[in-house]
Amino acid sequence: MKSKVAGIVFIVGSLYYILAEAISATFFNSSFFNTYIFHTISELGIPNGNSPLFWLMNSAFIVIGLTLLFGNFYRFIDFIIKNKRICYILTFITSIGVIIVALIHGGNPLTSGYHTLGAVMAILGGNILLVLISRSMGEFDSYQKVTLSLGVLGIIVFWIMFFSMDNIYMPVLERLSVYTLIAWSFLTGVYLLRN
Predict the structure, then answer these.
(1) Residue 195: what pLDDT?
(2) Rounded CA gap, 67 and 191, in Å?
């Protein structure tokens, strides 16, 4: 029963995030395509005229943060054989980072440092967590291999993004490094429902 509950939470949380971002992007002050290519996810959450549905995007950050926190602590951690304490810590860091991104917006010189810290906690912390999870379970089957691949991809893309912040396509890199965690959440929901 716990696996089913956690699995549904993971699936619903990841789908909510994707849908909320797509709807927020639809109403952003740019075309849908340009929003995804040239505007960061964080821009969708800034409360101004460019993003009338900023509250929806920020709710998606909070939902995915709580999804990871609940899903991992409620059930998924039972599948972790090694490095449990580090997985607990990284889950907490990732979840709090995403929630910071929702509550402290970018674009404000007074708070942008905290926003950036939250983003690093969420993106880098989350992808490191995936790599650790893949090597901390009792088996190394297809689920663990996909988890490892997502984590490694996310870390590589994050570092490319980090050292090319002035790149016009930086928002694409940002999304790729974030979507690895969203994809893992969905995948983990399916994994838990099957187990």
Answers:
(1) 81
(2) 15
Q: Which residues pair with 137 in a beta bridge?
A: 80
C-beta separation of 128 from 90 below 8 A:
yes
As a whole number of angstroms, the distance between CA 133 and CA 129 comes to 6
d(CA 171, CA 27): 17
Instruction: Pick the closest to residue 69 from 44, 41, 37, 93 (CA basis).
Output: 93
pLDDT at residue 154 is higher than 90: yes
Closest by CA to 181, choosing from 152, 138, 159, 161, is 152
Q: How far apart are CA 37 and CA 195, in angstroms?
A: 38
117-138 burial, b at 16+ Cβ within 10 Å, e below that, comes to ebbebbbbbbbbbbbbbbebbe
d(C-alpha 51, C-alpha 24), whole Å: 7
> For 19-39, b where at least 16 C-beta lie within 10 A, e where not — what string?
ebbeebbeebeeeeeebbeeb
Average pLDDT over residues 75-84: 93
- pTM summary value: 0.94
- Ranges of beta strands (E only) in the chain are none
**pLDDT tens, position by position, 19-33:** 999 999 999 999 999
Provide CB contacts within 8 A for 31, sequence distance 6+. none
The pLDDT tens digits for 96-120 are 999 999 999 988 888 889 999 999 9
